[in-house]
C-alpha cells in the first residue's frame, strides 16, 4: 500500500503519501488506516515517525484516532482547520473587523446564489425559522435562531465549500461579536428592524430577485456594523 | 513557562497551551520555542509527545523547525493551511466549480472594497500591470500578469485575511483552471475583451464607482466561466 521513504522530514512524506492516496481515491471518507505497525513497515520508517504524521493529520482534523480501534479518515470535517486558523488570526494580529468583513463579503454574494438556487423545501425551512424568531423573546434562543437563518441561506447556495467557510468564520467571529449580537437583539427596536429585514430578505429570495437580495443583505450588515465597530 | 498536563491526548493539550500563549502574546511571530527537552520537563510529558505536538503545528504551518536551531513561530503564513485544505477538498469530493464560485463570490465584493479604499500608489501599480498585459503576447507571462492584477485588487481591499484566503483559493484552483486560463488568453479576441474589461475595472475603481466595479467584475467572471464549466 505504501512506498519506502528516504529523506529527513519523514512525517511530511507520509502526509504526502496519504494525500496521494486520497487523490487516487484509494482512501475515502470514513476509511480505516492500516495500523501504525503496518504503516511503519510499509514505509520503512520508525513507528514514532508514523505517529508524528498521524498526530499532525489529527490536529488538522483530517483523521481521527478511535481509542483501541485505530485511525480513520474523518467522515465529517465540521470544525476542521478552525483551530489552526484561529491561532493564525491571533498571530497575524488579525483585526476581528477583517474577519467580519470577509463574512460580509461572502454573505452578500451567497444570498445572490441562494436567490438563484433555493428549493421550495428550503424556502419553507427559512420561513419557519423567521416565524420562530418573531415569536421568541429569549435572547439566547434568538442568537441561535438568527445564526440558523444565516446558515440556511448559505445552505441554499448549494455550495458546500461556502457553507464550511462561513461556519469557520462564524465560529471565529463569535468570540468577538457575542456580546454585540446580544446587545443588538436585546434592543426591541433593533429586533423589529431585524425582523423586517429578515422578511424582506426572505421575500427577495422567494421572488428570485438577486439584486434585491444583495441590497437587503447589505442593509442587514449595516445595522450590525453600527454595533461592532 | 508551561504547565503540567494530565490527560491521554497529550499533544492536544500542548497545542492548546501554545495557543493560549499566543493569545496572551507570550509567543509572537518569529519567536523561538523552548527546546523539546525543556518543554517536556515543563509540561511533565515525554519528548515524543512534545515532538508530536510540534510536528502537528509544523504541518499546519504555524511553526517551522530550523535544522539544528530549534523550533520557531513562523514569520510568514503564506501557503498556510493550503495543504490540509486541499486534502479536505479532495475528501469532500469538492467540485472545482465550487471553489471557483467561492473565489468569484469573494472577488465580486473585494473589488467593491478596493474601489472604496485604494490608494493612488496602488492605482498606479495596477495601471502598470495593465499596460504590461496589453503589450505582452507571451501566454505564460500573461497568466502571471493576470494573476498579479487580481492580487493587487485584493491588496487594495486592505483586508489581509481576504488577500490570504484568495491566495489559497487561487492555488487550489490553479490545478483545475490552468489550461482553461491559457485557452482564454491564447484566443486573441478573448484577450482583447479581457483587456477591455480590465480597463473598465480600473476606471471604475479609480472613479470610486463601487457598483460599476462590482458589475464589471461580474462580466469578467462570466467570460471566464464560459471556458471552465
List the helices and strands and how they pair.
2 copies of one chain form a homodimer.
Chain A: H1 10-23, H2 36-43, H3 47-60, E1 63-66, E2 70-73, H4 82-91, H5 96-117, H6 120-135, H7 139-156, H8 160-186, H9 188-206, H10 210-228
Question: Can you tell me about this structure?
Answer:
2 copies of one chain form a homodimer. With 229 residues, chain A is mainly alpha-helical. Chain A has 2 domains: 10-75, Arc Repressor Mutant, subunit A, CATH 1.10.10.10; 79-228, GntR ligand-binding domain-like (Four Helix Bundle (Hemerythrin (Met), subunit A), Up-down Bundle). Chain A has 10 helices and 2 strands; from the N terminus they run αααββααααααα. In chain A, strands 1-2 form a two-stranded antiparallel sheet. In chain A, helix 5 (96-117) crosses helix 7 and helix 6 packs antiparallel against helix 9 (188-206). The interface between A and B is large, with 53 and 53 residues. Chains A, B: Residues 8-76 form the HTH gntR-type domain. Chains A, B: This is FadR family transcriptional regulator. Chains A, B: It comes from Clostridium chauvoei. Chains A, B: It holds the Pfam family GntR.
Amino acid at each position: 500500500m505504501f512506498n519506502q521513504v528516504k529523506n529527513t522530514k519523514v512525517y511530511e512524506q507520509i502526509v504526502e503519501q496519504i494525500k496521494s492516496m486520497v487523490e487516487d481515491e484509494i482512501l475515502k471518507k470514513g476509511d480505516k488506516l492500516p495500523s501504525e505497525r503496518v504503516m511503519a513497515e510499509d514505509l520503512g520508517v520508525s513507528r514514532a515517525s508514523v505517529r508524528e504524521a498521524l498526530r499532525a493529520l489529527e490536529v488538522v482534523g483530517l483523521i481521527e484516532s478511535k481509542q483501541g480501534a485505530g485511525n480513520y479518515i474523518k467522515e465529517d470535517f465540521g470544525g476542521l482547520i478552525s483551530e489552526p486558523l484561529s491561532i493564525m488570526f491571533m498571530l497575524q494580529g488579525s483585526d476581528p473587523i477583517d474577519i467580519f468583513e470577509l463574512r460580509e463579503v461572502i454573505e452578500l454574494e451567497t444570498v445572490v446564489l441562494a436567490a438563484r438556487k433555493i428549493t421550495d423545501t428550503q424556502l419553507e425551512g427559512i420561513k419557519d425559522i423567521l416565524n420562530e424568531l418573531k415569536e421568541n423573546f429569549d435572547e439566547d434562543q434568538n442568537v441561535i435562531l438568527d445564526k440558523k437563518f444565516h446558515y440556511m441561506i448559505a445552505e441554499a447556495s448549494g455550495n458546500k465549500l461556502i457553507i464550511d467557510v462561513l461556519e469557520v468564520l462564524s465560529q471565529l467571529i463569535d468570540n468577538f461579536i457575542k456580546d454585540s449580537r446580544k446587545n443588538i437583539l436585546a434592543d426591541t427596536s433593533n429586533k423589529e428592524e431585524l425582523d423586517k429585514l429578515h422578511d424582506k430578505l426572505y421575500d427577495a429570495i422567494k421572488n428570485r430577485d438577486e439584486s434585491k437580495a444583495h441590497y437587503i443583505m447589505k442593509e442587514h450588515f449595516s445595522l450590525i456594523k453600527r454595533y461592532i465597530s
